[in-house]
């Protein structure tokens, strides 16, 4: 139950994503706070925790905001699993490593979403979507530079025995 803080942070990120992120959009592209958190916790704690957090957050987003259930969840699951697998041989608490993982993870996440939409025969403009993917990847990576140290602190706080209350 130590990770209840992480689940609360995921809920907070989803609320933040739905309310305030539209005001800081660049070129019509919003940063994805949920994706940044899932990649960060997968990088810090491995694919097991990344998968559980991505399942929780992805199902919440799919149920609350999407018509097709599973788009966000499956994309987050794949990104979290690959991040957890690839993070075994890197310095996990480095902001530069997180920057690279979030940049590549955002590209993969969006490509999976685009591929899923193409399979569902959505009418898409591929060149516009590729520009959105690149802008969002850069945007998410820049935000990661500023928030990753706080995520690392929260993660080490949760792993320690310091709690505000017993669960």
UniProtKB/TrEMBL annotation:
GO terms for biological process: regulation of cell shape. It is found in: Cell membrane. Keywords: Cell membrane, Cell shape, Membrane, Transmembrane, Transmembrane helix. The keyword Cell membrane applies. It is a multi-pass membrane protein. The chain crosses the membrane at residues 6-26, 33-57, 63-84, 96-122, 128-152. One of its GO terms (cellular component) is plasma membrane. Pfam families: MreD. Its main location: membrane. The keyword Transmembrane helix applies. Belongs to the MreD family. This is Rod shape-determining protein MreD. It comes from Thermoanaerobacterium aotearoense SCUT27.
């Amino acid at each position: 139950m130590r990770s209840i803080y992480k689940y609360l942070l995921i809920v907070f990120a989803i609320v933040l994503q739905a309310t305030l992120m539209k005001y800081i959009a660049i070129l019509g592209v919003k940063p994805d706070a949920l994706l940044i958190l899932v990649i960060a916790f997968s990088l810090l704690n491995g694919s097991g925790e990344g998968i559980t957090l991505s399942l929780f957050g992805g199902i919440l987003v799919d149920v609350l905001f999407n018509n097709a259930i599973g788009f966000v969840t499956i994309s987050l699951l794949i990104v979290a699993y690959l991040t957890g697998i690839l993070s075994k041989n890197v310095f996990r608490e480095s902001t530069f490593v997180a920057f690279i993982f979030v940049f590549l993870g955002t590209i993969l996440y969006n490509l999976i979403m685009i591929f899923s939409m193409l399979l569902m025969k959505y009418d898409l403009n591929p060149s516009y979507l590729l520009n959105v993917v690149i802008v969002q990847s850069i945007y998410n990576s820049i935000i990661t530079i500023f928030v990753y140290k706080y995520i690392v602190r929260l993660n080490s706080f949760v792993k320690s025995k310091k709690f505000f209350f017993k669960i």
